[in-house]
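Troubleshooting: if your tokenizer reports a length mismatch, compare your output against this known-good record of 112 residues.
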Amino acid sequence: MLEKFGKAAFDLLEKLNKASFDPYLNDSFEIDLENSKVVNAKLIEVQDTSSGVVESFSLIFQAPATAPFYQGTYKIKHEKMGEFPVFMVPVGPRRGMLEYQVIFSRLKTKNI
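Known-good structure output:
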């Protein structure tokens, strides 16, 4: 997967946390599908799900129901955040749109 997305994308992933996404709530992100198709999705929720020694947060994106895609790893792009791979899972329809969830979860380095 490193060959597909590049080392810089994975280096960026290590630095991202909930606060990285908070300023971009309701912004549009491009999701690069494998068939050279791009879907625009709006970040509609950023939620802290951390507990104990685990840092965890969830993102919910809303995309047009006319361009559904399966769960998988996709490159997402944002004009200020850059581009990086995430594993997205469809969680269902809402208000005529489809919602997709991304979960980040890792050990808190301060507690190790």
